[in-house]
Write a structure and sequence with these properties.
eight-stranded antiparallel β-sheet, 601 residues, alpha/beta, GATase_2_dom, cytoplasm, globular, SIS_dom_sf, transferase, 3 domains, repeat, Rossmann fold, binds 5-amino-5-deoxy-1-O-phosphono-D-mannitol
C-alpha cells in the first residue's frame, strides 16, 4: 500500500527519494510524488502510474534541495490522478504532506474547521495539511499545529510534513500504519519500510503510535502528545541490501520461488539446537501448550497457510484449532474458549485487518503469538511472542516463500507442543523437512515442465478450477489465489466433493481443472471427481505424489510426509501461475489493484 520516504541531510534529496520510492514499488501503488524544499519554496512533482513516469516529470522540474519527502499512493479516497497523488499542500503552499492510511473523521474535521477552504483533491489527506495551516494561522508554531492536528485525527496514519519556512525539520507521526526513522551521520530519513532507505542507512528507530517526531539533520526528537521527550535506541535492520534485488532473475516472484529450498534450510537451522533437536523459546511453548483452543488469524495467503497449520496443530499437538479470516473475525468474533491463544500469521506483520483483531484480543487480555517475516513489525511488537520466518524480504506481491516458510514454522511449533503434551511423535520432522527441501529443489529444477503445463492448460482460458480434498483442498485455495492475482484468470479452489453441489454447472468444453492428488485416503475420491468433470468436457491437469500416481497424471511430485505435501505441491502451482501470467505479458511482480502490504482495513 502507500509508501513514504523522506530525507533531510547534506545531499540532493531528489535522487535519494526517487530511489527510495523505487524500493517501495513492491508494496503496490498507482501514483507517486515527491516534494523538495529549497530557498525558493517547495517544489512538488507528481505522476500517475509508475515511478519511471514520476522520474521523467521530476527530472524536468527544478528540485535541488537537501530536504524532501516522497510517496507512492494506493488509491482509497479518489481515483489515481495528479490531484489526488501525494504530496498534498496547504492553501498557501507553505505546508506539504505525505500520508499513508485512512482518516475516518476527515469529513467532520473539514466541516468544523475548513469550510472556507477550496480543496483540490478528493483525499482525506488534504484535510490534514489544511488543518496544520489552519492552526498555524491561528498563531501556533508548526510543531504545535501538527501536534494539535494529530490529537484530532481518528483512523490510521503515517505522516511526513514539511514547512517551507523551516528547512531544518520533517515532522512525523503515526497511528497503526508503519513508519520508521532511519539514522545517519549528518542526515536522517523516514521510511515505511527499512528496505527503502537501506541505500543510506541500516540504523533505524521505531516510532510508537501517537508520538510526534521532529527529524532534523543531526537529531531525532521523539515526544509524546503531551510534549514529554522519549529516548529511543536505534537498531540494525537485519536485511541485506542484495536480498532486496532481483539478481539474475527476471522477476522477484521467480527469484522467491527459487529461494524456497534455501529458506527451508534456514528454518531447519534456526529452529534446531546443537544436538539436532527442535528448539523454541520456552515461554512460547508454555503459552501454546497451556491453551485450550488456538485461534489462527490471517488474511490471503497467510490464511491459507493457517489452514494447513491447523492440520498440524490438531493432528500432532492435539489442540483444537480454528482458522479465521481477520477482516471477518474482527466484526464477528465467535464464542471464545476459556484459555484461548491467538496466532497471527502475517508475512509483513503490518496487515491492518489482522492488527485490528490483535488490538481487540489484547484488550481482552488473551495471549498472542505472531508468525511473521519482519522482525519489529507492528504485529510482532504488539503480540506477546514472535516466531520469525527467516525467509528474507519478499518483494513480489504474490506471496510464495512466505507461505512455505509459514507452514514449516507451524509444523515445528506443532511438533514441539506435541512433545510438551507428551504425545507420541510419529514423525521425525527435521528429517522430513530435509526431504521436503530436496523435493522443492526437484520441482524448481523442473520449471520448464511447469511452463509447458501453463501453456497446455492456461494459455487462452478465461477461467480455471483447482480441486483437492482434505489438505489438498487447502492448497487448491492457495493455487487459485496465486493464479488469479497475477494472471487475472478467474480461478477458484474447491473441495472435490463439493463440485456436484453446484460448481460443476460451470464446467464447459476445455475448462481447465487442476486437481491435486497427494493424499492416500482420498486418492480414489479425488480421481472420481476428476472423472466427473472430464465427463462434462473439462481439461484435467492432475498433480499427484509419487506412490499415489496413476498413468496419465500430468506431474508427479516427489514423495514426502503426507501432511507436509502442501510445502511441495504448492511450488508447482506457484510456477504454473508465474508462467501463465508471464505468457499473458503481465506485470508479474506488481499485479493491478494489489498492494504487498495491506495497511488499511
Ligand atoms: O503480510 P500478510 O501475510 O499479512 O498479507 C496477507 C495478504 O495480504 C497476502 O497474503 C496476500 O494474500 C498475498 N499477496 C497473496 O499472494
Amino acid at each position: 500500500m502507500c509508501g513514504i520516504v523522506g530525507y533531510i541531510g547534506q545531499d540532493n534529496a531528489k535522487e535519494l527519494l526517487l530511489k527510495g520510492l523505487e524500493k517501495l514499488e513492491y508494496r503496490g501503488y498507482d501514483s507517486a510524488g515527491i516534494a523538495v524544499v529549497n530557498e525558493s519554496g517547495t517544489s512538488v512533482s507528481k505522476a500517475k502510474g509508475r515511478i519511471s513516469e514520476l522520474r521523467k516529470v521530476a527530472e524536468a522540474d527544478d528540485q535541488d534541495g537537501t530536504l524532501g519527502i516522497g510517496h507512492t499512493r494506493w488509491a482509497t479516497h479518489g481515483v489515481p490522478n495528479y490531484e489526488n497523488s501525494h504530496p498534498h499542500q496547504s492553501a498557501s503552499k507553505r505546508f506539504t504532506l505525505v500520508h499513508n492510511g485512512v482518516i475516518e473523521n476527515y469529513e467532520e474535521l473539514k466541516n468544523e474547521y475548513l469550510s472556507d477552504i477550496t480543496f483540490i483533491s478528493e483525499t482525506d489527506t488534504e484535510v490534514i495539511v489544511q488543518l496544520v495551516e489552519h492552526f498555524s494561522n491561528e498563531g501556533l508554531s508548526t510543531e504545535d499545529a501538527f501536534t494539535k492536528v494529530i490529537s484530532l485525527l481518528e483512523g490510521s496514519y503515517a505522516l511526513g510534513l514539511i514547512d517551507n519556512e523551516d528547512e531544518d525539520k520533517i515532522f512525523v507521526a503515526k497511528n497503526k500504519s508503519p513508519l520508521l526513522i532511519g539514522v545517519g551521520d549528518d542526515f536522517n530519513v523516514i521510511a515505511s519500510d527499512a528496505i527503502a532507505m537501506l541505500q543510506v542507512t541500516n540504523q533505524y528507530k521505531e516510532i510508537h503510535d501517537h508520538e510526534i517526531v521532529i527529524v532534523k539533520r543531526d537529531d531525532v526528537v521523539i515526544k509524546t502528545l503531551e510534549g514529554e521527550v522519549q529516548e529511543r535506541e536505534s537498531y540494525t535492520a537485519q536485511i541485506d541490501a542484495a536480498d532486496a534485488e532481483k539478481g539474475v532473475y527476471d522477476h522477484y516472484m521467480l527469484k522467491e520461488i527459487h529461494e524456497q529450498p534455501a529458506v527451508m534450510r534456514r528454518i531447519i537451522q534456526e529452529y534446531q539446537d546443537e544436538n539436532g533437536n527442535l528448539k523454541m523459546d520456552s515461554s512460547i511453548i508454555k503459552d501454546v501448550a497451556e491453551a485450550d483452543r488456538i485461534y489462527v488469524i490471517a488474511a490471503g495467503t497467510s490464511y491459507h497457510a493457517g489452514l494447513v497449520g491447523k492440520e498440524f496443530i490438531e493432528k500432532w499437538a492435539g489442540v483444537p484449532t480454528e482458522v479465521h479470516v481477520a477482516s471477518e473475525f474482527v466484526y464477528n468474533m465467535p464464542l471464545l474458549s476459556e484459555k484461548p491463544l491467538f496466532i497471527f500469521i502475517s508475512q509483513s506483520g503490518e496487515t491492518a485487518d489482522s492488527r485490528a483483531v490483535l488490538v481487540e484480543t489484547n484488550k481482552l487480555g488473551h495471549k498472542s503469538l505472531t508468525i511473521t517475516n519482519v522482525a519489529g513489525s507492528t504485529l510482532s511488537r504488539e503480540a506477546d511472542h514472535t516466531l520469525l520466518l527467516h525467509a528474507g524480504p519478499e518483494i513480489a506481491v504474490a506471496s510464495t516463500k512466505a507461505y512455505t516458510a509459514q507452514i514449516a514454522v507451524l509444523s515445528i511449533l506443532s511438533q514441539i507442543v506435541a512433545k510438551e503434551h507428551k504425545r507420541e511423535a510419529d514423525v521425525d520432522l527435521l528429517r522430513e523437512l530435509a526431504k521436503v527441501t530436496t523435493a522443492i529443489e526437484a520441482i524448481v529444477d523442473d520449471a520448464e515442465v511447469m511452463e509447458q503445463i501453463a501453456t497446455d492448460f492456461l494459455e487462452t482460458t478465461r477461467n480455471a478450477f483447482f480441486i483437492g480434498r482434505t489438505i489438498d483442498y487447502n492448497v487448491s485455495l492457495e493455487g487459485s489465489l496465486k493464479l488469479k492475482e497475477i494472471s487475472y484468470i478467474q480461478a477458484e479452489g474447491f473441495a472435490g466433493g463439493e463440485l456436484k453441489h453446484g460448481t460443476i454447472a460451470l464446467i464447459e468444453d476445455g475448462t481447465p481443472v487442476i486437481a491435486l492428488a497427494t493424499q492416500e485416503n482420498v486418492n480414489l475420491s479425488i480421481r472420481g471427481n476428476v472423472k466427473e468433470v472430464v465427463a462434462r468436457g473439462a481439461n484435467p491437469c492432475i498433480i499427484s505424489m509419487n506412490g499415489l500416481n496413476k498413468d496419465g497424471d500430468t506431474y508427479v511430485i516427489p514423495q514426502v510426509h503426507e501432511l507436509l505435501t502442501p510445502l511441495v505441491s504448492v511450488v508447482t502451482l506457484q510456477l504454473i501461475s508465474y508462467y501463465a501470467a508471464l505468457h499473458r505479458d503481465l506485470d508479474v511482480d506488481k499485479p493491478r489493484n494489489l498492494a504487498k502490504s495491506v495497511t488499511v482495513e
